[in-house]
Design a protein that fits this description.
Arylsulfatase, C-terminal domain; 14 strands; four-stranded antiparallel β-sheet; 457 residues; 2 domains; single chain
Length: 457
């Protein structure tokens, strides 16, 4: 391997960690990811600390947390002057490319995104956001002509990135393939993948309430169909690296911006702090550098940029708050008191609406929160104090909230202190959502969202 590897980030939208064969799910069909996991590093407790699209994507690009980069809501703009992963790698001589969903421009979900707002990515076939996967729009290069991906967009997006990789010059590359699925709508995967899943045969986790189990099987079957279609795309991408002699010098990462509840705890989508929302797949492969196996690193979105700088021998910008975990990944170690910060800076959109409509108890009501996810535990506070405590080894479906349980008082105190140290280290004052919105000058609608004129999904 040369000193500076190629870097390929495969970035799904709303793919939860539990939805993979290598993760122990016997219903889902993901043979290519399973094979990749067996030959790479599986960060099995990787976390999307702020589990919603725009905040997570801005943290990937900048290495900052949302209270610093300001994108704690969907559909607000990332400062084009911020240091970013694209700019940093381009300045180091990498060719850079982005294909697929962007969702940090904040000028409308169908609007053209000019070069100065692309954060250093040169090759460009992208759209701010769509979930119309079979009539998916995009812009290519510096043309403001709106185009449409033929067929199911993930298929042709994968082809486009493969072509860019194969036909580039001798410089190392940083490429991002950013798929829209398996984000809902769940029923729109190609028919051959939907036929693979019989809703009646789908197993459900214990945290899907009994009265909602029949309603959940159909959406979960559709979700899995999207995942299997993307697994085939991933297989073609890995095969292309082999074909073009690039596999041995390419660091490949497969991950997602956040998960999806898909009926667990009465909820759908994301934002909330339960495992199906915050846990994401995170697989890595770099032959000769990373030893295949399982890692318990609590890697989070802000850590990706500095970690990739570590593998490439680059200095991360001083603005970066995330951790360079490259040496831990090389050595198979974890930092002392390793944890991921969980956060909802404000609540908006689907979580408040779905919880109010479907959840019978205020436990699941939407609220601002901060918490920590350690290797074993989840601890979360809202603005009124302690809210959730789970032992994820003894209770992986998070059915027993241990908050204020006398038998776990010492543990609760320890995790509260860890959360406080983590917040203080990051300069996170844990203010109300209204205060963050006031500070950043955002205008929201009655659902707490930024209006998106013309948005149809």
């Amino acid at each position: 391997m040369t000193s500076r590897p190629n870097i390929l980030i495969v970035y799904a939208d709303q793919w939860r960690a539990q939805a993979a064969g290598y993760a122990g799910n016997t219903d889902i069909i993901t043979p290519h990811l399973d094979a990749f996991a067996a030959n790479g590093v599986n960060c099995r407790v990787a976390t999307a600390g702020t589990p919603v699209c725009t905040p997570a994507r801005a943290s990937l690009l900048t290495g900052m947390y949302p209270h610093k980069h300001g994108l704690f809501l969907n559909d607000v703009p990332l400062n084009p002057d911020f240091p970013s992963i694209g700019k940093t790698f381009a300045a180091a001589g990498y060719r850079t490319g982005w294909v697929g969903k962007w969702h940090v421009d904040g000028h409308g979900r169908y609007a053209y995104i000019p070069r100065e707002r692309r954060q250093g990515f040169d090759f460009w076939m992208a759209l701010e956001c769509t979930h119309d996967y079979n009539h998916s729009r995009y812009y290519a290069g510096d043309s403001d002509e709106q185009l449409v991906w033929p067929g199911y967009d993930a298929f042709t997006q994968t082809d486009a990135l493969i072509d860019w990789i194969a036909n580039g010059d001798r410089r190392p590359f940083l490429g991002v393939l950013s798929w829209g699925p398996p984000h809902s709508p769940y029923e729109t995967a190609p028919e051959q993948y939907r036929r693979m899943y019989d809703p009646a045969a789908i197993s459900l986790p214990a945290n899907v309430p009994p009265e909602k189990r029949d309603d959940t099987r159909g959406p979960l079957a559709g979700y899995y169909a999207h995942c299997t279609a993307l697994d085939d795309c991933f297989g073609r991408l890995i095969a292309a690296l082999d074909t073009h002699g690039l596999a041995d010098n390419t660091l490949v990462i497969f991950t997602s911006d956040h998960g999806d509840m898909v009926g667990s705890h009465y909820l759908y989508d994301k934002q909330c702090p339960w495992e199906e929302s915050v846990r994401v797949p995170f697989l890595m492969r770099l032959p000769g550098v990373l030893k295949p196996g399982v890692s318990d690193l609590l890697i989070d979105s802000p850590d990706i940029f500095p970690t990739l700088c570590g593998f490439a021998g680059l200095d991360a910008p001083r603005s970066v708050q995330g951790r360079d975990l490259s040496n831990h990944l090389r050595a198979g170690t974890t930092p002392e008191d390793d944890c991921a910060l969980l956060a909802a800076y404000c609540t908006f959109g689907n979580w408040p609406w779905i919880a109010a409509k479907l959840a019978p108890t205020p436990l699941y009501a939407a609220r601002e929160y901060r918490g920590v996810r350690t290797k074993r535990y989840t601890y979360v506070e809202d603005l009124n104090g302690p809210w959730l405590l789970y032992d994820n080894e003894a209770d992986p479906c998070q059915l027993r909230n241990l908050i204020d349980d006398p038998a776990h008082a010492a543990l609760q105190k320890k995790l509260a202190a860890l959360l406080l140290r983590r917040r203080e280290a990051l300069g996170d004052d844990f203010l109300s959502g209204k205060e963050y919105i006031r500070q950043w000058g955002y205008q929201t609608d009655e659902r707490g969202t930024i209006p998106c004129p013309g948005w149809k999904g």
